Hints:
Number of strands: 13
Distance between the termini: 15 Å
Strand order of the largest sheet: 3-4-5-6-2-1-7
Helix content: 40-55%
InterPro entries: G_TrmE, GTP-bd, GTP-bd_TrmE_N, GTPase_MnmE, MnmE_dom2, MnmE_helical, P-loop_NTPase, Small_GTP-bd
CATH topology of the largest domain: Rossmann fold
Pfam families: MMR_HSR1 (PF01926), MnmE_helical (PF12631), TrmE_N (PF10396)
Low-confidence stretches: 1-7, 249-264, 280-290
Radius of gyration: 29 Å
Largest sheet: 7 strands, mixed
Bound molecules: guanosine-5'-diphosphate
Order of helices and strands: EEHEEEEHEHHHHHEHEEHHEHEHEHHHH
Family: Belongs to the TRAFAC class TrmE-Era-EngA-EngB-Septin-like GTPase superfamily. TrmE GTPase family.
Number of helices: 16
Structural class: alpha/beta
Number of domains: 3
CATH superfamily of the largest domain: P-loop containing nucleotide triphosphate hydrolases
Strand content: 15-25%
Keywords: Cytoplasm, GTP-binding, Hydrolase, Magnesium, Metal-binding, Nucleotide-binding, Potassium, tRNA processing
CATH architecture of the largest domain: 3-Layer(aba) Sandwich
Oligomer: single chain
Subcellular location: Cytoplasm
Mean pLDDT: 81
Amino acid sequence: MSTAGLISQDTIVALATSSGSNGAIAVIRVSGSEAIRITNAIFKGKDLTQQPSHTIHFGTIREGEDIIDEVLVSLFIGPNSYTKENSVEISTHNSTYIIERVVSLLIKKGARAAKAGEFTLRAFLNGGLDLSQAEAVADLIASNSAASHQIAMQQMRGGFSNQLKKLREDLVHFASLIELELDFSEEDVEFANRDQLKNLIQQIYTVINKLVSSFEQGNVLKNGVPIVIAGKPNVGKSTLLNALLNEERAIVSEIAGTTRDTIEDEINIHGVTFRFIDTAGIRETTDIIEAKGVERTREKMKQARLIVYLFDPTQDQITNVWIQIEEVKSLGIPFITIINKADLLSEPQKVEFNILNPLFISAKEQQGIEKLKDELLNQVNLANINTDDVMVTNIRHVEALQKTQQSLEKVLYGIENPVTSDFLAMDIRQALHHLGEITGAVTTDDLLDNIFSKFCIGK
Ligand code: GDP
């Protein structure tokens, strides 16, 4: 996709709802200066070109005398629309045949098929959203938990970029003062107070540092907490995983029409997604007691933010369990000690294992699963994360922030050492450039292509 011609006022059309679903209605989106006129040409009802913005109209879509569908048309007159252009949303019945006919009729009347992400790209180009907000739209649509939804929502509403814009403005001010010094270089004047500049840079550095470190947490909330279920063969790892996932599946399938295929290795507990690392591997691995297997399991455990370690009390002596716990502890990752197959234990036996302070469960009998879920939430301590805080979840943003940090370090070095103003100015400009990349103050066609081509058509 080339972005070069996109600012032109051609009118685009696409299905905005997902195709092929079982929903009752579909929404076709039209945007561009001719959106209302083109829709009006196939619509029988009121004259749409004479109606005010933000109104809905009932009528039929026709090709000649042929009635294709009864529809509702929503009108948005630019700039009061998502794209800031004239926009129309046509709600039709959700039939592939109807949708194809309506879209091709609109194209026949002068619209063209929209490219991936083109509606949101226009919103960005026309100033409705900045770049990080546009990216948040994609995250919002993809969000599948309360936490990821909240972060995307916060970012879309500008929380994240507002903070950066303010910092950038302060820095622009200093850049221009230092550049002014360059014009007077023979006179050896300093317009930019070096102490104030240093102060500002340090301030910005702290904020950026916080944003960069929020990435780990933000990423966990967005993509799920990576966890591993570990333990010797036959302790009941797969049984536990299935118990956790099955319950989830049952909950999901109760809600009509929400059957999901991707739920495979994820569970959602009170809005937090937990993602099981390589659980397929757990199902296959029966050789983890062998040297190679142990090494592989260790590698897997290191990727986790939380380890659920299972013991089978009918297989392992308590001293043996103790040794394994010490081994897991050495990884320095939080873990939960689980004694599985509690259904096979007598009360006196349980008392003996109590010294390990474990959670007793029976994966097979589905006992203790709720307690385990509470413990999962406890351990990752996500309840304390305030998702209202500005949080970075996008790898592109983190990279730009890290580059900003590097430039700021150079600026700081430049202030402390005999570096000429022109080098200082260059480093500040570099930092400004990287900050601008996040909000879209600095863009290239490649960058835009890259971001928006990841969107679906219709977004
Ligand atoms: P994995 O090798 O660690 O994945 O272990 P599996 O999940 O395949 O379980 C090994 C055996 O232990 C199977 O026969 C399970 O039915 C059984 N098992 C798992 N959990 C329990 C439990 O809580 N109680 C009892 N009695 N048996 C269990």
